[in-house]
Structures are given as C-alpha cells and as structure tokens.
Amino acid sequence: MKLLEINHLSKSFEGKTVLQDISMTVNKGEVISILGPSGSGKSTLLRCATFLETMDDGELYYCEKRIVRSINHQAVYPSKAEMKEARSKFSLVFQNFNLFPHYSVIRNVCDAPIHVMKRDKEQVLAEAKKILAKVGLSEKLNAYPCELSGGQQQRVAIARALVMNPEILYFDEPTSALDPEITAGILRIMKDLAAEKMTMVIVTHEIDFAHAVSDRIIFMDGGVIVEQGPPEKVIDNPSNERTKAFLQKFST
After folding, report:
1. Residue 123, class by beta-carbon neighbours within 10 Å (0-12 exposed, 13-18 middle, 19+ buried)?
2. pTM strictly above 0.85
3. N or C end of the chain, less CB within 10 A?
4. Distances in Å between the alpha carbon of 140 and those of 12, 135, 143, 189?
C-alpha cells in the first residue's frame, strides 16, 4: 500500500526555486533515505510532506487519499478537519529535538496524544513508558530536557514521535547535532525500527547507515531528484556524475 505519494511538487522562496517537479512514493514498511549536499532541497521536501511548508504546485496523497491537489498549477489545500486527519498519519523527528523545555520527559512524550488526539490518558502513559524503556530512558521519566544529553533528548524526541502511532516516521538529519559516539546509539534505535518494518523517510548524511537500512535511496541536488533506487545501485554503483561526486567526498 502507498502511504505517501507526491506528484510534481514545486516550491520557491522569494522567487528562488528550491524544489522542482519532485515525484516520489513511499510504500508501507519501506525505509527510504534521502541523500544530497546541503541546500539540495532535502529538508524542504520533508517540510512540504509534513505541512510545515506549503507547496506551490503539485499533488500529495496520504494512504491513497488526495490531500493536496493542483488547480491551474497552484497547490490547493483542504479543510482543517482533513488536514488534521492527514497529520495523524505521520510523525517528524527534528535535528534539534524541539522538546518543550518546561515539560518533563514523560509529559513531552504524552502531551500531544492526550491533548491533541484526545486519547485515554492511562493508555497513553502505559504506552509511553514502554517506548521510553525501549529507547533506554526508563530512569529519566521525570527529568527535564536541560538535565539530559543531546543523545537522550533525541531519544525522547523519537519516543514522542512513536507514541503517536504514525504510519510514516520522518527523520530530518536526526544525528547532525550529535557527536559520533552518541550518533551510534541513535542509529541503533533507528535500525531496530527498520527491522520492525516501521515505514521511515530519513534525510541523512550517514551513508553507511543509509546503505544498511534503506530499501531505496533518493539522491537530490539542486532541488531535483537526480537518481533513485536500491542502495546497491545508487551508493555502490551510481550512474549520475553528481551522485558520484557527492559520494566521492565520503569515501576519501
């Protein structure tokens, strides 16, 4: 089943084209890594897919239901109710954690499902404790973000995303603010999620990790998808010169 479908997405900022004619699909259980140099449009693509930015043109579907349509090359968004339903299909883990500093760990994780989704408080608490144990934070339920390391904060952010029971989990460079030792722990959690067949779309510079966990690699440059396919093709044997030049920097 297609969980996400994007057709001919375009996006500009102040007259500068950032994304041009982007089309992609994400199937249930798939892990897709998006690679490319800084400024290639990777994060903007994720922000459009998660409605943090509005598309200028193109179509977007979640679970085969059209959410954004294109009329006269203009993206048209639906009602608030339809947008709310579409937002329930995904969670996004940011590179800078985006935790509420005045909330404890457990409250950071439970706040949205209880107050936004109106789910049963006891059920959410039980689920949150289970997920926090899974990411190694059972001892930190009542701690505050300022008392946690960067890696621990990112674990809280992942737990917060998981407790929403998303169809798709998006990661926007989840390790770029972390040092290498801590990065390894976060990547391990993500590998475990991939093994559990969690559908994930990951913007990352971790080439080895992307190779190990991804069903498909999308390489972007200059606001377009330059090349895509399985890791063995795109990373091990790229056909495009821009992809080759980018990967060369990581192998030297």
Report:
1. exposed
2. yes
3. C
4. 42, 11, 5, 17
